[in-house]
Amino acid sequence: VREYAETLPLSTYAVYGGVSINPQMMRLRRGVDLLVATPGRLLDLFRQNAVKFNQVQTLVLDEADRMLDLGFAEELQSVYAALPRKRQTLLFSATFSDQIRMLAGLALNDPLSIEVSPRNATATSVKQWLVPVDKKRKADLFCHLLRKQRWKQVLVFAKTRNGVDQLVERLLAEGVNADGIHGDRPQATRQRALDSFKAREVQVLVATDVAARGLDIDDLPLVVNLDLPIVAEDYVHRIGRTGRAGNKGEAISLVCADEVQLLAAIEVLTRQTLPRHEEPDFIPEHRVPMTDASGQVIKKPKKPKKPKENSAKRGLGRWMDSSEAGSAEPAVKAVRKVPSFNSGPRKRKP
Q: What share of the chain is helix, strand, coil (3-state, %, to 5)?
C-alpha cells in the first residue's frame, strides 16, 4: 500500500499483533488516511481509544473468505458495530464458497458481484501434478526430489507446526539452507525468514497455511504440498504463490492414501484431475486410489479369482486323453469324510 500511495496525498499505516502496541498508538495519534489492520489488533486499538471510526468511508476485507470464517466472525461483528452505518464495504478473495457468499450477503446491502475469472480457478501459468507416496516416506521423497531436480528455491506447505519444524530440522542436518514459518513463531522471526527467502539466502521455506495467502514472492518457481490442505480452497491460495504476474510456475503435491478424499475435493473445486507421476524408488505400499474432477474415488477392480480345479479330475488328469478331458466324468468320486460322533475323548497319536 505504501508503494501504491507513494505519489498520492495520502498517509498510510499498518497495524498487526505479535509486536508492541505502543508505537502503533503513538503513530495513530497523528491520524491516517488508509489503515491496514488485522481484526484483533484493530479492536485492541479501538478499545484503547487509539483509533476512531466515525469518519471511516470505506471498509475493505481482503481474503474475505477467511475473514468471514467462524474464527473471525465475532471480531468482525464488533468492528461492524463500531463503524458508521453509512459506508462502502468491499470484499476481495480468490476463492468464494456458497457459504461465504451467504455470510457476505448478511454484511452487505444490495451487493454487486464482480468476477474477473471463473470461481475457484487455478492459474493456467501453474503446472500441477502429484506424486503418490506412503505417509511415512514423504520427507524422504521431498529430499530425494530436491537433490534430483536441483531445485534452487522452493516453498513447502506442511499441515502442522510440528511437521514444519521436523522438515526444517531434517534439511538443515543435510546441509540445506532452510527455515520455517508457523503461528508459534513470533512475527519478527517469521518476517526475517520470509525476507531471507525472498533474498534467496534461504533455499527452502517450510510453512503452514499462515503463508498461503498474501505472500508476493518475485519469480517463485515452485510450490510443494508436503501435505494436502484440509480445506480445498487453501490449495488454490497455496499454489497461487507461484506463477504470478505472468510468470510460469510449478506445483507438486506429495499424496498418501489417507489424503484421497482431500485430493478428490481439490479436483472437484478446481474442475481438473491432477496428473500423477510415480517416483520409481518411492512407489507406495498403500496405493492411492484414482480420482477425477467429478469427485469419484475410483477403486481398482479386484483381480478375478481363478476357479479351483476339481480335486478328482486333477488326480486323474494324466490318465485321461486330451479329447476326453472336456466331457468325461471321472469314474471315481471324492469320498466325503463324515465326522465321528464319539462322545469319548479323542486319542492322540504318539
A: 35, 15, 50
Compute how many other C-beta atoms are within 10 angstroms of the C-beta atom of residue 264. 22
Which residues does residue 155 pair with via DSSP β-bridges, in sequence order? 205, 223
What are the cell numbers at 314? 486333477
Closest CA to 279 of 142, 97, 78: 142
In the three-class reduction of DSSP (H, G, I as helix; E, B as strand; rest coil), residue 309 is classed as: coil
**Per-residue model confidence as pLDDT tens digits over 107-162:** 788 888 887 766 656 667 789 999 999 999 999 999 999 999 999 999 999 999 99
pTM: 0.63
- Count of CB atoms within 10 A of residue 36's CB? 15
Strand 290-291, strand 297-298: pairing: antiparallel
Q: Give pLDDT < 70 ranges for the chain.
A: 66-71, 97, 99-100, 103, 117-123, 212, 214, 299-350
What SS3 class is residue 22? helix
Pairing state of beta strands 249-255 and 290-291? unpaired
The whole-angstrom separation of Cα 312 and Cα 331 is 9
DSSP labels for 231-272?
A: SHHHHHHHHTTSS-TT--EEEEEEE-GGGHHHHHHHHHHHTS
Decide: 249 and 220 in contact? Cβ < 8 Å.
Answer: yes
Angle at 343 between CA 338 and CA 347, to 5 degrees: 80
